[in-house]
Amino acid sequence: MTGPRTLAERRQDVERRLAADVDVWVATASPEGMPHLVPLSYDQDGGALLLATPVDSPTGRNLAASGTVRLALGRTRDVCMIEGRVEALGIDDLPAGRADRFAARTGFDPRASTVRYGWFLVTPRRVQAWREENELSGRELMRDGRWLDR
What we know:
- There is one protein chain.
- This protein has a single domain, classed as Pnp Oxidase, Chain A (Roll), CATH 2.30.110.
- 23% of the residues lie in helices and 43% in strands.
- The longest helix is centred in the first third of the chain and has 14 residues, at 7-20.
- By secondary structure, it is of the alpha+beta class.
- It has a 6-stranded antiparallel barrel.
């Protein structure tokens, strides 16, 4: 096992992963507390993450109802957890350029589906990242939407 990464190294690794990965685990809960976990493709613009899912699916309903989400990237020994606020948008409410970018990056254009999709814009509020036990104590990288510097 190597020594723990610095806060700056972890943030850099998280930003690289967000730019390179295409899929993320999306954890939501219904108003009754029923958990739901699915993988979804995403696009990221350096700040918010953009997801698309059918509005009538459990994930779509949960995202719209709660306005919050937890996302997970990576393997269990190199994980990034993101908690964020969700803004639900209609499929025609997103600027065409952003929707085109999502389609190009993910290989899927929800605007062309016969199923009614919605856009879900996730603004990170808390980010955690760790690899091994020696990184658990400093795993929080963002709090209240602001990157920590120490």
